[in-house]
């Protein structure tokens, strides 16, 4: 079951970590960091100038996607709690092309995972990520700050490596 | 077959609530009319966002072609279809004209598609064919209400 993206949002609604496992586009072999589709029509220019705008645009679009994801998840979570009572919890939603899974810790740390539509509940997977990776490598890291403003202390080597191995083990 | 249908909400293409019926007490919290209107508007917005969040939107090749060599139009992005929570399940059916049918059922519900299809049939027959119904306005059609209630009651009693 392919996993497409993974996000972590802190209690201040900020996206403190995001990672993508998207397959490379079939038609145009691009480096995985750039999503600039419109640049491909032009012949490649040897200067470094044209490669800069698409990566900056990709970064903004990724940041906007994270914000949109949070907005959708936050609204749905509040809607669910209103309808189902305060003990109810939003688990997942599915569209025709992807499925979004949600897990929230008691400290309002929010994990969001996007997978393909056929995958089963990823709640236990995200719970495992929380206890085995987040607590072990971020919370117990003496160098990581308490609040991860701008993602500080999250993107360390052990966490990145552990997460990548764990997700690739699922696929 | 065990299934319970809790409620049905119909949202028009502008995000306004046009029908709100509860069929099973105790499944969902009862909200005030104002809260239902807010809920409908919020869901309308979230539905639009979920259609845009498709992680594979950059992966689609430029011009897909149908077998005859004719360039085919890609499927329009679909928004939220099913939402699962601990206490209920929400099935959303978006018609081609943008009217949304939200069906709240219990978590073990199966064959919601069939139920949804039947409700859409009833809507087409008794709301859209009602000469006194103004489109996009709140639904006040007695026949529709009666047919809907008897259909849902049949489902809820069969469990």
From TrEMBL, chain A:
Report the locations given in the UniProt record.
Endoplasmic reticulum; Golgi apparatus, cis-Golgi network
Q: Which domain of life is it from?
A: Eukaryota
Q: Where is this region: Disordered?
A: 20-57
Query: Where does the chain cross the membrane?
Result: none
Q: Which SUPFAM superfamilies match?
A: SNARE-like (SSF64356)
* Primary location group: endoplasmic reticulum
| An individual GO BP term | endoplasmic reticulum to Golgi vesicle-mediated transport
Q: Which UniProt keywords apply?
A: Endoplasmic reticulum, ER-Golgi transport, Golgi apparatus, Transport
One GO CC term on file? TRAPP complex
Query: What Gene3D superfamilies does its record include?
Result: 3.30.450.70
Mark out the compositionally biased spans (Low complexity). 33-42
Carries keyword Transport?
yes
The annotated regions of Pro residues compositional bias extend over: 22-32, 43-53
User: Matching InterPro entries, A to Z?
Assistant: Longin-like_dom_sf, TRAPPC
**Subunit field text:** Part of the multisubunit transport protein particle (TRAPP) complex.
Task: Spell out the family assignment given in the record's similarity comment.
Answer: Belongs to the TRAPP small subunits family. BET5 subfamily.
Name of this protein = Trafficking protein particle complex subunit
TrEMBL record, chain B:
| Natural source organism | Sodiomyces alkalinus (strain CBS 110278 / VKM F-3762 / F11)
Signal peptide start and end residues: 1-16
The protein's name: Trafficking protein particle complex subunit
Q: What is its main location?
A: endoplasmic reticulum
Task: Spell out the subunit comment.
Answer: Part of the multisubunit transport protein particle (TRAPP) complex.
Cell compartments where the protein resides: Endoplasmic reticulum; Golgi apparatus, cis-Golgi network; Golgi apparatus
Instruction: Tell me the superkingdom of the source.
Output: Eukaryota
Q: Which SMART domains match?
A: Sybindin (SM01399)
Q: Which residues cross the membrane?
A: none
One GO BP: endoplasmic reticulum to Golgi vesicle-mediated transport
Fetch the Pfam families from UniProt.
Sybindin
Provide the Gene Ontology terms for cellular component. endoplasmic reticulum; Golgi apparatus; TRAPP complex
The UniProt keywords, alphabetically, are: Endoplasmic reticulum, ER-Golgi transport, Golgi apparatus, Signal, Transport
Q: Name the protein family.
A: Belongs to the TRAPP small subunits family. TRAPPC4 subfamily.
Show the CDD domains listed in the entry: TRAPPC4_synbindin
């Amino acid at each position: 079951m392919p996993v497409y993206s993974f996000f972590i949002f802190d209690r201040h609604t900020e996206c403190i970590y995001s990672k993508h496992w998207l397959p490379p586009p079939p038609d145009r072999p691009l480096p995985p960091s750039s999503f600039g589709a419109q640049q491909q029509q032009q012949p490649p220019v040897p200067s470094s100038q044209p490669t800069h705008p698409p990566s900056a645009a990709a970064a903004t679009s990724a940041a906007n996607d994270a914000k949109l994801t949070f907005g959708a998840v936050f609204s749905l979570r509040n809607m669910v709690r209103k309808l189902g009572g305060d003990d109810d919890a939003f688990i997942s939603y599915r569209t025709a092309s992807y499925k979004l899974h949600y897990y929230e810790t008691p400290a309002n740390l929010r994990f969001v995972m996007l997978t393909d539509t056929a995958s089963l509940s990823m709640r236990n997977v995200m719970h495992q990520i929380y206890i085995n990776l987040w607590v072990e490598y971020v919370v117990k890291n003496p160098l990581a700050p308490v609040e991860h403003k701008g993602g500080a202390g999250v993107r360390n080597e052990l966490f990145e490596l552990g997460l990548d191995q764990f997700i690739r083990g699922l696929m | 077959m065990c299934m319970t249908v809790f409620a049905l909400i119909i949202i028009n293409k502008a995000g306004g609530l046009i029908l709100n019926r509860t069929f099973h007490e105790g499944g969902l919290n009862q909200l005030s009319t104002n809260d239902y209107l807010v809920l409908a508007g919020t869901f309308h917005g979230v539905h639009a966002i979920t259609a845009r969040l498709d992680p594979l939107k950059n992966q689609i090749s430029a011009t897909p072609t149908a077998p005859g060599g004719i360039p085919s139009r890609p499927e329009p992005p679909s928004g939220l279809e099913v939402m699962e929570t601990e206490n209920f399940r929400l099935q959303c059916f978006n018609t081609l004209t943008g009217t949304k049918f939200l069906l709240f059922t219990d978590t073990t519900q199966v064959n919601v598609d069939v139920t949804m299809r039947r409700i859409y049939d009833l809507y087409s027959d008794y709301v859209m064919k009602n000469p006194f119904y103004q489109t996009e306005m709140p639904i006040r059609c007695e026949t529709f209400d009666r047919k809907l209630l008897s259909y849902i009651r049949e489902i809820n009693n069969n469990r």
